[in-house]
Amino acid sequence: LKTPLKQAATSQLVLTERQPDCQPLTTPPKPKETPPADPWTPTSNLKMLISAASPEIRSREQRRQLSDSSSEVLQTKHCLQEHLLGDEYEKSQPSRKEKSLGLLCHKFLARYPDYPSPSQKSYICLDEVTEELHVERRRIYDIVNVLESLHMVSRLARNRYVWHGRHNLPQTLQALKKVGEENKYIQQIQMIKKREYEHEFDPDGERNEEMASSFGSSEQSEMSFVELPGVEFRAASVNGRKYKSLRVMSQKFVMLFLVSTPQIVSLEVAAKILIGEDQLEDLDKSKFKTKIRRLYDIANVLSSLKLIKKVHVTEERGRKPAFKWTGPEVLPNTQDTKLEATSTTSSPPISESITSKEQCSKALFPSKGKQSFTRHSSLIKLVKSIENDRRKIQSAPTSPVKISASTYQSLPVFPNTIAQFPAITKHQLEGQSKTAEEMQMKYALSSPEPVPKSEPSQQPALSQPLGVCPASHSSVSPVILPHLQSGVSYAIYLHPSQAHTVTTYSPGFMLQPLPCANVTGIKSNNSKVLNKITTEEGDIQRGLDEPTKSLAAEERPETKSETSQRCLKRSQALPETNLIKRRKSDEESLDTSLTFFPSGYLIPLTHCTHSNKAECSTKEKAGVCSLQHTAYSSPITGVIPMPASELKTVNIPAFHITPLNIMLSPNSIAAAPVLSNSCLNSSSTSSAPNPSSSALNFMLQHIGLIPAGVQIPANPVLQHMPVSSQSENISHSSGSTNVQEGKVIKFTFYSPINESNCLFSLQPSAPKEPQEPQAVTENFFRTPGGPNTEPALSANSDGTQRTSQGTLYIPQRKLEVSED
DNA sequence: TCCTCCCGCCAAGCA
DNA sequence: TGCTTGGCGGGAGGA
């Protein structure tokens, strides 16, 4: 055995095969498939060294090995090498590329039809595959794991899988997109890019330590696996490792594409998100590197599936490897697709008649393992608890009710930590992450906000109720999250290791992890936050029975206010040194606004739709913590003095808006390439009938509060109108162009948007510094007069402020995408 | 030099 | 206890 030598010619052939311009790749010719004669042995390295040291020895060794291997190859029906000598033999050796996972995946996929007949299942025997493809078993696992994440295969038994093909792919992608949207990956990407940008001003790394201490390691909390009904997940090890599984990584990676616009994701960003918190990048580079390695593995398989394609994104900070989604477009969540895939899959389809909780559970946890039973049991227990609490709250008056901390003490679901908030705060400030995270969870559970009025016949896209996942009381704490929009509900299971982390998410809820680090600016917030937690909880519960009217949203007035102030301060003209410092300071505060995302075991319960109460058992419904239509006079919204603005009319205060996330840096804008087509279209002309709506949607989509395909009219009645999310938003940018293959494309965002309803109109809520809104506008938005033109602020009729020009300009950004 | 990712060790856990 | 599964990171090929 010798070191595999370069095979330029064959490699090129293989490369050609791997880039077939979407032509189906055929199995490589047999000569190129010739495997190494021998498996690597423990002495192979020594042989390699000897071989490398002396060409003569190498040549002799080659011949000898060739002879030796020939017999084995013959035994294994691979005898080509037997007739090869010297260079020929060298050429026969597969190059590194020929052994790539992507090519191997091609071979693997070539064995099975894309759309197998549902009547006859295709089974995958790993032994056979490894033998026929002449690869290590380990490599097959890599492929199978990624395919499993897409539900193209499912594990049947030991050493045995079922091939589903692409039947499940549409449903899987839709589910992943939905989860990705709910996870606010767009925001995460924005945040990461913003930090990258700001890191240029703070290269000393000190900030990272602070962030790391603030967030701690929450990689585990990031892990979840999205299942489809009928496609069982039977990993060999159903605990522990599952949460770090390549499957989960693969799913999240795909999610990033599905929620991004354009659908290009750089490896770096993906790795950071997969790690959990990007602040760890510099502290643990090995972890980052490992993540990158895995992403390459995943990307290779996804590329073989023609779901993604490698490109390079060139930004100011350099050229980065990235991948572009080339798979099927995933339409906005619609209910009509939820069972489409399963109806054709070879796996047991979920009958729509299966709607009871028990049936859901059976379908989701068919295995006999302890885990399944435990989860099921705790699921019931949890929803019972929530149901009890919900019943209590529903019996209360419908007006906003301030729920005291003692209320929580009576909830078995919520340990008494609510009542211990002062202590928690103290611990939090002392860096006691566990307690802090517990409180984060509480806060996450208590952040609903109202939709004042909405069409009952409609199902607002924003009204996806929140599931509550306090996991500290049991090993696994499941909750069903109904999703009206798609009719797909999810059960989230918290892994025991995640119990201490903030894990809950709902589209309308911006979870606000309360930092445990000694961040100065946060201290003053905590008490207020705690107050708000206690007052908002009732809103969560009260909205249980009116989820379709709910607008999942959250407001954090204090944070918003302070953030706004910081934003304003930051935008003021300052000496550069001060600016940098301020950036650091701002970042701390911004970090505290970072959204955390769901963890655990996320399972869509497609057949348990929220709208069908008869089908969903009461207990299940109890697990739904939806939102309440809190009046504006609620103590929550009252925290921030808001003018009778248009924003208020459309319930903007319901959202926790962190405009800094979007506006602070040009990079963040580039990081949020979802330049809403509706926004840009309508805003590009002054005759747009409702620029406020456009701007509002633009911002809401940017911050992930609404999906890209949803629009909210800025009229008092909150509605949503799904629009195509597949519009090429880039093309709406001036001077932009769609990404083309094989070229370096530049597209520039210099997009005017009308500001009349823009989010920073909220800034006047900072009464102490009335002059600052001006600075904000100046800093983050450019008027047509030029980057330094100072727009004059004027009051709208509704009390909000806007620039005199009425038009905002996003700072110009460049993003180049090239494909290799 | 950096990117890419193959390779196989070895631990977890299943049968 | 052997085998399956898969996390993980060293390190080599390639650009």
UniProtKB/TrEMBL annotation:
Gene Ontology biological-process entries: negative regulation of DNA-templated transcription; positive regulation of macromolecule metabolic process; positive regulation of nucleobase-containing compound metabolic process; sprouting angiogenesis
Gene Ontology MF term list: DNA-binding transcription factor activity, RNA polymerase II-specific; RNA polymerase II cis-regulatory region sequence-specific DNA binding
Cellular location(s): Nucleus
Listed SMART domains: E2F_TDP
GO CC, alphabetical: RNA polymerase II transcription regulator complex
Biased composition (Low complexity): 342-355
InterPro entries per the UniProt record, alphabetical: E2F, E2F_WHTH_DNA-bd_dom, WH-like_DNA-bd_sf, WH_DNA-bd_sf
Family annotation (Pfam families): WHD_E2F_TDP
SUPFAM superfamilies: Winged helix' DNA-binding domain (SSF46785)
Bias kind Basic and acidic residues: ranges: 57-66, 539-563
Region (Disordered): 1-44, 55-74, 324-355, 445-466, 538-572, 764-820
Ranges annotated as biased composition (Polar residues): 794-807
Superkingdom of this protein's organism: Eukaryota
Domain E2F/DP family winged-helix DNA-binding positions: 96-165, 241-327
Keywords in alphabetical order: Activator, Cell cycle, DNA-binding, Nucleus, Repressor, Transcription, Transcription regulation
PANTHER family: TRANSCRIPTION FACTOR E2F (PTHR12081), TRANSCRIPTION FACTOR E2F8 (PTHR12081:SF40)
Entry's family note: Belongs to the E2F/DP family.
Protein name listed in UniProt: Transcription factor E2F8
